[in-house]
Amino acid sequence: MNLHLVIITGLSGAGKSQAIRAMEDLDYFCIDNLPPSMLHQFVLLWQQTALDDRRQRVAVCIDIRSGIFFNTFLSSLDQLAQVGITYEILFLDASEEALIRRFKEVRRPHPLSTQGRLQEGIRLERQRLKELQQVATRVIDTSNLSVHQLKARVRDFYSQPNQGEEFLVNVVSFGFKYDLPEDADLVFDVRFLPNPHWDPELRPLTGKDSKVFSYVMNSEPASRFFTMLEELLAFLIPLYIKEGKYQLVIAIGCTGGRHRSVACAIRLADFLQTLQARVHLEHRDVDALELEERRE
User: Fold this and answer.
1) pLDDT tens for each residue of the chain, 296 residues long
2) How far is it, in rounded angstroms, from Cα 153 to Cα 143?
3) H or E stretch covering 279
4) What's the CA gap between 279 and 287, in Å, rounded?
5) Considering just the CA atoms, what is the radius of gyration of the chain in Å?
6) Within the chain, what is the greatest distance between any pair of CA atoms?
7) CB 63 within 8 A of CB 12
8) How far apart are CA 7 and CA 43, in angstroms?
9) What per-residue confidence (pLDDT) applies to 71?
C-alpha cells in the first residue's frame, strides 16, 4: 500500500486541531506543528520504517506557528514532488468574523497579532497563506460548522471503506448497590422488572442462564420496555454517528447486577447487532455477590 499523506494547514482558529484529531480517530498517524523544513526527511524516514499497511496513512499539520520556518513550506512541497511523493493538502478557512469570535472565546492571542491587534493578525496570516490555499486539494470553510460537523466532514473525505460501520456500543450490566459506571452515556434502571432473586431455584443462577433470562423477558413490563428502548436507540444511534460520536456506553442496572440487568444487557446487545454497530458486552457485577461471600 502506498503512503497516503495528508497535509493539514489553514488559518489559525479555523479548526486544524479538531481536524487532526478526527484523522487520529481514522487511524492516521498524526503530527501537529511539524516544521516544513522537516517534512521531506520525515516522509522518507517514515517510508523506510512503517511496515504495516495501516501505518501508511499519515497526516501532518503545518501552519504559521512554525514562525520563520513557515517560509519554506512551498519549497518543501516541491521536494516531495521531485522524489515522486504524492500528497493532499487540506486547507481550513473561516471568515474574519468567525475567527475573531473564536479567539475572543478562548482568550488567546493570534500568532501574528502585534500589540494585541487580532484583526491585523488575521489579515496578515490570510495574505501569507493565499498562495498555499490556491494549491490546496480540499478547502473547508468552517465559519458555520460545529466541531462535530467539521469532524464529520473530515471523516467523509478520509475514512476507509467500512470505517463508517465501526461505531462501538459498550453495553454494561451493573448493580446499583455497587454504584453507577462512571463512563456511562445512557443509564437504564430495570429494577421494575420481576426479580429472580426471590425465587429459590433461580437465585443461585445469573441472567446468563436461560431460566433466568426467560423469567425476566417473558413478563409484560419487559416486553413493553424493550419495544420502546429499541425504538429509541434505533432513532438515537444514527444521530450520534452523524454528530461525530464514535462510541456509546449504555449501562443497564438492577439491584445487584446479577439477574435482571444481565438478562436485559444480553437482549439489548443482540438487538444492537442489527443496527450495524460493533457491540461489546460486559457484566460488571455479575460475580460481585460471590466475591463478597468468599471474603466473609
Assistant:
1) 478 899 999 999 899 999 999 999 888 999 998 888 888 888 888 877 765 555 678 999 988 887 777 878 888 888 888 888 889 999 999 998 888 888 888 777 777 776 667 888 888 889 989 988 998 999 999 988 888 878 878 887 887 655 544 678 999 999 999 889 888 899 999 999 999 999 999 999 999 999 999 999 999 999 999 999 999 999 999 888 877 677 889 999 999 999 999 999 999 999 998 887 789 999 989 887 665 555 44
2) 13
3) strand 278-283
4) 22
5) 26
6) 79
7) yes
8) 12
9) 79
**In this structure, how many other beta carbons lie within 10 angstroms of the beta carbon of residue 68?**
7
The residues that bridge with 279 in the sheet, in sequence order, are: 169
CA distances from 234 to 1, 204, 229, 230, 277 (A): 37, 34, 9, 6, 11
pLDDT confidence of residue 105: 84
As to burial, measured by CB atoms within 10 angstroms (0-12 exposed, 13-18 middle, 19+ buried), residue 263 is buried
pLDDT at 292: 57
CA distance 113 to 124: 8
Q: What is the DSSP string of 144-204?
A: T--HHHHHHHHHHHHPPTTGGG--EEEEEEEEGGG---TT-SEEEE-TTS--GGGSTTTTT
Beta carbons within 10 angstroms of residue 200's beta carbon: 7
Side-chain-side CA neighbours of residue 129 (13 Å): 28
Residue with cell 446479577: 258
Neighbouring residues of 116: CB distance < 8 A, sequence distance ≥ 6: 109
**Grid coordinates in use for 62?**
503545518
Tell me how far apart the alpha carbons of residues 172 and 184 are, in angstroms, rounded to a whole number: 8
Phi, psi of 57 (to 5 degrees): -105, 115
